[in-house]
């Protein structure tokens, strides 16, 4: 026995539907994994599957797939294909019927005109049903001892020799595990029957449906001589999906089944439609020299469920990836079964009698997988010894969110054995009218007619066991305690007084429960929590008693409170985070299925990928986690048990139709317990914490789109458990603080506590560093980020795709290549990218801090004046000496400050190059690759899942790619196209239209890449790189910025560094860089590949989708419908739209780090309004320009615009950093002595080190220096 703790780690991700309750009916079916469904969906859409009976390519693909998965299934079961064959059937019952039909047809040819059939009493009804095909020649064995006796002495068995043919055809069937109690029957009977000379014509049918769910069958098939002849099982009881069964046939016995009379579909090779005798079946031994048939060829009637078989192969791979082997599952379930048995045995009434009457053999064997499975059959008894009806137990369990099964569970022999029913009692049950379904009678003559069954599975956890035991305790022990007779017995009071007493007791109980809930604080609503004013200190919990005080406020106090609240706007702390605007875009609203499809398309696109896969996969995970957390929080707040009744925005989908059916109301008739609500809120906070760990900026943007309930989820969980680190982390982001007062209203203590508790995680260090930058503690921020990078590189494994992913990526040139959908463990992480960028900006801020001290002050502010101010008692005689000394000290401080400026700027440049080295640039990417990406995105927006790439892209010649750091090396690559070219410098110049280019430039996009490129130029300004080199880097940065396009995930972002760079260019001397064009012209978006370069008249030949069409399709899906026929909004709708736009502008302005006072705030708002007006005019102009002129020529100005265009010129906000850097460029003298140069040895030509490589070698030394 061994508990599989890894299930706890992946269950919420792989089995999110299990958060609906404690599922304990794995004996009916187990639960399918999320990745199984996702993989099946991708495999279905990624390939064209045909009917395996055809001969076309899709049909051959399906046939090869079926054969491959048939062999994979045999291997999973431990059956050697040389000795066993596998027949796909609908379920275990279908396999049993297939065997029964074959024995019936063959039995008609025997002298007895029938066959003998025997089965065990604990067999499933599907096995008992075979007796209808063997009338008179049937025997049921009551127990294991009777079977052993029959095997040793067959002639003593009734009906075995009734017709005088002791060695005639026979079939013995029994289950591997009781469907009722989980008792496991011997596996040795097939071997004993086969070895007995008098039973040489008796075959064995083994029902492994219940056994295979949590046990390996390898020991059953290990020796073909000991294995059953026929073994049936239901595969959905192992994997949850697909709904498919299998019949494993021992090849030495398979000929029995091939002699059945029926044929049809693919089981016949040739026949004559007129003559009854002319038919050739697909049975082993028949066929021509080119083909020999297998057993399954003659038994699988009609077209196979090949789509379900495809899902089966993915299910096996998923099952092995999650659990490793069936032996691991067996040990896990045995551990839980033993634990549950011990807890059930401890449930006692007040008089010491047992609450649970468990039906298990003595001695109890729970924990021994060879004798007992993880299944419990029981009934609940009251204190007086009577039985609680099993129908009532099942109803109460459903209301409590515990899902079990009750009744006869298709095992009448097991019920009879457990409840000790005699034959006449069965007659009484029949005569009473009891039957499965609506006529069920749970108790007849004080004796139950069925049982309650709880069965465990591979994904069952300790939490499920605790929920089940807690349900039994709360329903059948605690609730049965007698109410104290406060006013005497009912016999001593008149009827009216009795009713009054009952009402009084009920009222007192309700008040008591409310007081207990308020004291415990676990059921506090989010609205109540939001009323409590939290203090920006290390205290992370709120005082729940404040809620009651606020409800008693007078009218005057309410007016005062509203007046004060109007003066100070309290918003969540994470809405102050920088770079939030960089992460806005359609990914927040588009259906998560489309986002996942685009992420996989992007990952499978040839390098350079259009968008950084690490950040895109992080966005996908964040969306999923935030949606799930919102769902849990809304359900807990609304008392809704099932997530089907909620959506991520906190509403009830289709509430109108639901109210018409009488289905509205909290919980759909089921009230959640306090413990269940607390667990749901804890799960929600854990999911939000994981999302913030991935990327706190992106998660902050995502939570702004969710329901308001999640804003208080951290505070609610902390009321119950003040030391919960996940809730602390979430509450840190969601705590309401005064607007624009982040530094004053934030304490680092909660983050310090999280770091101390989880030292191996660098995310909290990242968050603390960001807060330190708001507090202008840049040295502390740099130290935190350096530590975070070290922790990240030690504890985070570098991204290396699994062997399976690598093999799929290498499958080029194949017609039916399946797209790669990397598992979460194989997906790249963006954490190191984030830390490198943040540390670079921190070092750049540190450098700017020292600029003011490194510049020479003006004449009127230096010299004797400053000396006199600092020392007012200086007389005329000593003035010169003191002044000279002061000037020397000032000069020394200025020199040190200038060295610090260059040092920190170099460190910032090193980190920026490290950041840029994660992204790539292609100077000659074939247009077909860019077009294929756009077309596939367009198809995904129109509803296609995992659209296949064009086959033309498989045959393209390889193209060159560079990481961006190489472009800024001392010697850049030589094959780059010239930039700026004539088209950029002279856009209005008339030139002859050249042939459309077949290649284009492409850049891997990241939300922060524009800011990083501008920051790199600012670093070169501070380092005092030569003007010629700065010009080269400026052109290179412009080349890349014009290609930055976040389509279709990100929208235009505002770059603070771009504004600063523009200010530096404006203030600098015109002779400094001597750029050939303005910065806006140099960074003008490059023409879209393929679409913008088509010659006139070729537009009608283009069959692909344009960017506009893709954007329109995506917008249609995001908005929930087509844009066609859209009605004009009403006045009220227009007012609401304006209000939303105003709120959005305020949020954007507050998140802009350039906004520091009222004037800059108003400037940012006005700039946004101006840009919105221009966009409206541009949209109207584009609509007019899209119309074709009468002569058939299109408007040449109607070129599609790139998805991401940074309109920073609309934000004329000059920051202090821009002023300082511009002053440094204009006034600072050249600083020397900051770098120790070593004598360089001559190196062979072509092996020059890049700047990025040099910076990487210096990283350890610089990190150590930064941390001191």
Automatic annotation (TrEMBL):
Pfam families: Aminotran_5. GO terms for molecular function: molybdenum cofactor sulfurtransferase activity. Residues 856-870 have a biased composition (Polar residues). InterPro entries: Aminotrans_V_dom (IPR000192), PyrdxlP-dep_Trfase (IPR015424), PyrdxlP-dep_Trfase_major (IPR015421), PyrdxlP-dep_Trfase_small (IPR015422). Residues 816-827, 872-891, 1132-1143, 1258-1268 have a biased composition (Basic and acidic residues). GO terms for biological process: molybdopterin cofactor metabolic process. Residues 23-468 form the Aminotransferase class V domain. Residues 516-545 have a biased composition (Low complexity). Residues 516-567, 798-827, 855-891, 1118-1143, 1170-1204, 1232-1268 are annotated as: Disordered. This is Aminotransferase class V domain-containing protein. It comes from Fusarium coffeatum.
